[in-house]
Amino acid sequence: MSLNKFASFRYRIIDHCFQQPGKEWSLPGLQEEIARRLSEFAGSSVSISGRQVQDDFRVMRSLPPEGFDAPIVCRKGLYRYENAAFSIFERPLTTQDLQQLQEALSILQQFEGLPHVEIVTGLIERLRQGRLSNTDFIDEPIQLETNREVAGLAWISPLYKAIKGNRSLLVNYQPFAASEPVRMIIHPLQLKEYRNRWFLLGWDENLNSIRTLALDRIQDTEVVEDTAKNSMRAPLNNRFSHLIGVSVPETNPEPVMLRVVAGQVPYLLTKPLHASQRAGETFADGSRLFTFQLQLNFELESELMALGERVEVVAPQMLRSRIAQRLKLAVAAYSG
């Protein structure tokens, strides 16, 4: 086996040697110790040259990510760590490390309400004590499409904990179309964000199906039992493999065919409407046929309505008729 494949092990051995209190090592002594332990590990005799050990020192002394910034010093031919408490496996975070963490956090913080963001924020605040001044700040060179003012974000953390803790909830929910809140037992399964709005997907025992609840319509929740139905988690992800959005219809996926005008074709090729999208025949006018395997729901209709005159639904007929009817109503609204 090549010695290069033992590099990590050699660094560990050198690190262990230099952590021994009051002990200094000659180059031949280190060669012998490294060779002995490598031979035990490999099950056969391994020899180490002084040049190899010196090269290991070079790597260990170098800055991350190649090395460990190890304070290896040599006095009168004897080697040790200048700081006896140092270890390559307990290297403290540098100011640069903390700065990079802060930059990552500035992106995560745009997802306000997520429990992991709160945890990481607290950890970084503890890490930065004495390392970064209070005047340090991070610009946001990456800005995600988020809306911190949307209602319901406060429910993300408790609902997340209910999912992780396998808890079932009694939920008071106010649908838009109802005058009074609805009480329901929900086994929470997944939190999902769509178009800057958060939703809870859960198993409704009364309906015996998965239900989608908008977080901004939840009024309060209460834990009502200790365990949710784990058996309902398995098929959940499959529910979204042929879906746009969060509305889960009780229908099977079916082929959807769209004829897209020439000017819109490059946009669909670079930003598909769905993972099942396949580009097909190109027509004489430059328009192109795109096929999908989808469940028909409100969000799909909304995507097609947004494309307006740039797309024609070829199939299925039910979806074609539905979009045609909505377009007629839209025209009528502007005809008055």
Description:
By secondary structure, the chain is an alpha+beta fold. It has helices spanning 7-18, 27-42, 50-61, 95-108, 115-127, 156-164, 236-240, 265-270, 298-307, 317-333, and strands spanning 25-26, 72-75, 78-81, 168-173, 182-194, 197-204, 209-214, 218-225, 254-260, 278-282, 288-294, 311-315. The chain folds into four domains: 3-81, Arc Repressor Mutant, subunit A (Orthogonal Bundle); 93-142; 153-239, SH3 type barrels; 254-333, Alpha-Beta Plaits (2-Layer Sandwich). The strands form three sheets. A five-stranded antiparallel sheet has the order 7-6-5-4-8. A four-stranded antiparallel sheet has the order 10-11-9-12, covered by helices on one side. The longest helix is centred in the last third of the chain and has 17 residues, at 317-333. Mean pLDDT is 83; it is low at 130-137.
